[in-house]
Each structure stands twice: as structure tokens, then as C-alpha cells.
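C-alpha cells for chain A. Residues wanted.
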């Protein structure tokens, strides 16, 4: 099958030069080119401003070069291994497969429970399932497909669309690609004062019919509102696939936002994820970022503290194994006086895995009274390599800022202590690693998900050399 051919009779004629009259909900397969930009807009019957934004982004995408190893943010990542040439866009709804792929504790028709206020599931670039409890809906909370939201909340989306510094189409070629060809996006809106009782959940998945992942998530939490959102990513591709994701978070004045980002990509997915949070006066952001999957992952995680009283707490961990490569760039921007940020990232590496942490705290002129902290700790279990590069850029003179990093192996005295009490060495190593990661796992709001993460960590020790 050549690139751009349909893989389903329903999408016949939907390749590279238009959508061939394919209706929304049917399968659509396209080459990644200018014609695909028009085909996606037609497929979703988008408003003219979004069509124009896509065209402008595609022009920018064609003009921009792929990132080069001379650039500081990219020089440690072997981008040449990414599948940049063979790319196709497929929208292949498969609701049954999507629901079967959900973790057991997620709210779904297959596993009913009441630990969440709502859920939206995207599979193969299309929405497969959504639900929202009545209490949240009565407050005006929205959790839905971004394409559908373009018809119900068009002005709101247009106001916020790609406003963050790293979420803009011109940040790099990957964000331009996302702006031009995003599909299957997630939209979360919490109006002023609204407070869902329980977390909201969002899943982004691809099976073997999936393709280049170009998901876009937009989260808007208005004045005084509260939100907890858990977003997970999973895939099962058989061939190398590219992922170019953008996440935008807007926490308005006095809002409280907890965003838990989970990454469980399959072994053949090569990902670039750009996530940008903008935090207003007296708003609070708790951001948890956990990366466990993928062949190669490049994350840009940026928090903009834009007004006095803005606070950002960022915590995350990576457990990389085999030949996995995870490269994370974090940026804490203090753009106003009396703002606070605290970042803690922990990495565990086994086998020949590699990680990169490149962090920066930036304090703008006039941002007096800033408090900014940053720490990265790495634990080596094999022959892998961890790069830890924290940094500070301070342009104000009344601040409290610090940064630090460590790279080490398990403490032999602690291992001896546990072994002396009858615990086998592999089990002792597992216990120490779980303790190392536990402070971050505790930030995940649902007990069943915390238990699931503990089980995933334990599973990774069952194949360790004895």
C-alpha cells in the first residue's frame, strides 16, 4: 500500500488531494502535504479563521528547517533517527478498540465507576467516547473533542489559540506541523467559579491503524475555578511513527489547576511534545509529568508566571529502559514580582537508556520577590547515561532562586540493610526505586492510578538481570 492510499473501503479516494467526500466519522487517510490541510478543514467543516490559521502554519512549516544539532535544546537528541520522511495522516475511528485499551480504573462503559467527573477518549485521531457527569455539566464545564468545540465555543478558542511562547506555530517545525494538521484535539473549559467534584480524564491512543500523531489539547480554567485533569497517551504501532503534540494550559486569576500528564507510547513512537502553561494573578498550577514509553521523546515543558501571586509546582519522573531516550527541556518564567515556582524531576535509567534534563529558571527585570527552585535527580541501574543541566537567568536583584542536580547509583549500604533482613537484591532494588519515585506518584490524584504506576515500576524489575 502506498502512502496516502486508503486502508478502509469507507475512505476510498481520500488520499493526498482532498477528502474525496468522506463524511466525518468515516476513515480518512492522507499524505502530509498542503492538500491535507484543506482536506482536514473540510472533514471537520471548520470556520474560516481556523482554515486560514492552518494554511499560514503550513506555509511556515514548509519554510522552517528541522531543528539542528547546533541548537542547544536539540544537540543531545539524535533527531536523525526520527521518522521524519515517511509520514501520513490517518483518522480512523475505532471506539470499541479505544475503550478496550483503557486502563482498568478509568471511567468507561466497560469499567463503570465514579472516580471521575468526566472522560473523553481519542483513538487514531478521532473521538471515540465522551461522558460528563450532570453536576459538572450544570456548572458549564466542557470536556469534549476540540473540533466539536470549534462550533460551540469558537470565540473562546480563537481568543486563546496557540498564545504561549512555545506553543506558537513559529516555535519550531513541529509546532508548525501541529498548527497546520492537528486533528482529534481535546478541549477542556471550566468557567469562572466552577468546581467539578472529581478529576476529568482524557485519553489519546493509536492502534496499528494509527499514524503520525498530531493531537492538540487546549485547557482554559477561568477566574476562581478548579480543575484536575489526567491525560494519558498510549499506542501500539508496529512501524516507526512520529508524534508532534501541543498542550496549552491557561489558568486565569485565582484558578487552581492540577494537570497530570502520563506518557505510555509504544516502542515505535518518536515524540516531540510541546506543553505551555500560562498562570495569571494568584492562580496555582500543579503539574505532574510522567514519561514511561516511547522510543525517543523530546519534551518542552514551560510555565509562564505572568502576574503577582502566580504559583507553579512542577514534578515529574521518567523510568527509561532498553534503548529508550528521553530528553526534557523545562522553563520556569517569572514575569512578574512575587511569583513562586518549584520544580522536581527524577529519572530512573536501566539497561542502555539515556535521559537529558535541561532546565532553566528565568527571572525577568522587575520580577522582585521571586522564589524559584529547581532540582533534578537521576538514578542509574545499568550502563545508561543521564545528562543533568539545570540553569538560572536572573535579571532582578531581590530573589530567592536555587538549582541543583545529582546522578548516582543505588546505595550499597541500603541494599545490604534490606538483604540482611531476607529481601533478595532485585526486590531490594525495586523497593528503593519505588521509594525514590514515591513523592511524585503521590501527586497523582486517583488511588487506582497510583497503584497502577507502582505496578508498572515493579514490572520493570522482573526482567532485570539476576
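Reply:
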Amino acid at each position: 500500500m502506498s502512502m496516502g492510499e486508503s486502508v478502509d473501503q469507507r475512505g476510498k479516494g481520500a488520499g493526498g488531494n482532498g477528502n474525496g467526500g468522506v463524511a466525518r466519522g468515516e476513515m480518512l487517510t492522507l499524505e502530509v502535504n498542503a492538500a491535507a490541510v484543506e482536506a482536514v478543514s473540510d472533514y471537520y467543516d471548520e470556520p474560516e479563521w481556523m482554515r486560514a490559521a492552518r494554511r499560514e502554519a503550513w506555509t511556515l512549516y514548509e519554510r522552517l528547517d528541522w531543528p539542528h544539532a547546533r541548537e542547544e535544546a536539540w544537540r543531545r537528541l539524535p533527531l536523525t533517527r526520527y521518522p521524519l520522511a515517511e509520514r501520513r495522516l490517518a483518522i480512523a475511528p475505532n471506539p470499541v478498540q479505544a475503550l478496550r485499551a483503557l486502563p482498568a480504573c478509568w471511567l468507561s462503559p466497560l469499567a463503570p465507576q465514579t472516580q471521575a467527573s468526566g472522560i473523553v477518549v481519542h483513538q487514531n485521531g478521532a473521538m471515540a467516547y465522551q461522558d460528563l457527569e450532570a453536576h459538572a455539566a450544570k456548572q458549564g464545564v466542557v470536556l469534549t473533542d476540540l473540533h466539536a468545540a470549534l462550533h460551540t465555543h469558537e470565540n473562546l478558542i480563537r481568543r486563546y489559540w496557540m498564545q504561549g511562547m512555545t506553543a506558537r506555530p513559529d516555535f519550531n517545525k513541529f509546532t508548525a506541523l501541529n498548527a497546520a494538521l492537528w486533528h482529534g484535539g481535546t478541549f477542556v473549559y471550566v468557567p469562572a467559579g466552577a468546581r467539578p467534584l472529581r478529576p476529568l480524564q482524557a485519553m489519546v491512543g493509536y492502534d496499528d491503524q494509527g499514524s503520525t500523531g498530531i493531537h492538540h489539547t487546549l485547557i482554559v480554567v477561568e477566574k476562581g475555578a478548579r480543575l484536575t485533569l489526567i491525560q494519558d497517551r498510549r499506542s501500539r504501532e508496529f512501524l516507526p511513527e512520529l508524534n508532534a503534540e501541543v498542550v496549552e494550559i491557561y489558568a486565569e486569576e485565582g484558578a487552581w489547576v492540577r494537570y497530570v500528564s502520563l506518557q505510555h507510547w509504544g516502542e515505535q513512537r518518536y515524540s516531540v511534545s510541546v506543553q505551555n502553561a500560562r498562570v495569571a494573578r494568584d492562580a496555582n498550577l500543579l503539574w505532574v509529568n510522567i514519561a514511561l514509553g516511547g522510543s525517543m521523546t523530546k519534551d518542552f515543558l514551560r510555565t509562564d508566571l505572568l502576574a503577582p501571586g502566580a504559583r507553579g509546582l512542577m514534578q515529574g519522573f521518567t523510568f527509561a529502559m532498553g534503548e529508550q531516550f528521553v530528553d526534557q527541556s523545562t522553563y520556569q518564567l517569572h514575569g512578574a514580582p512575587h511569583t513562586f515556582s518549584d520544580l522536581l524531576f527524577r529519572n530512573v535509567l536501566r539497561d542502555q537508556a539515556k535521559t537529558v534534563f535541561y532546565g532553566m529558571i528565568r527571572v525577568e527585570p522587575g520580577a522582585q520577590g521571586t522564589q524559584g527552585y529547581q532540582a533534578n535527580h537521576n538514578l542509574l541501574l545499568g550502563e545508561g547515561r543521564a545528562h543533568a543541566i539545570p540553569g538560572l537567568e536572573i535579571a532582578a536583584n531581590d530573589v530567592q532562586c536555587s538549582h541543583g542536580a545529582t546522578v548516582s547509583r543505588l546505595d550499597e549500604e541500603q541494599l545490604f540493610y534490606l538483604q540482611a533482613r531476607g529481601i533478595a537484591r532485585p526486590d531490594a532494588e525495586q523497593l528503593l526505586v519505588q521509594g525514590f519515585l514515591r513523592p511524585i506518584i503521590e501527586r497523582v490524584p486517583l488511588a487506582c492510578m497510583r497503584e497502577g504506576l507502582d505496578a508498572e515500576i515493579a514490572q520493570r524489575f522482573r526482567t532485570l538481570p539476576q
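Confidence is low (pLDDT under 50) at residues 1-20. Residues 91-411 form one domain.
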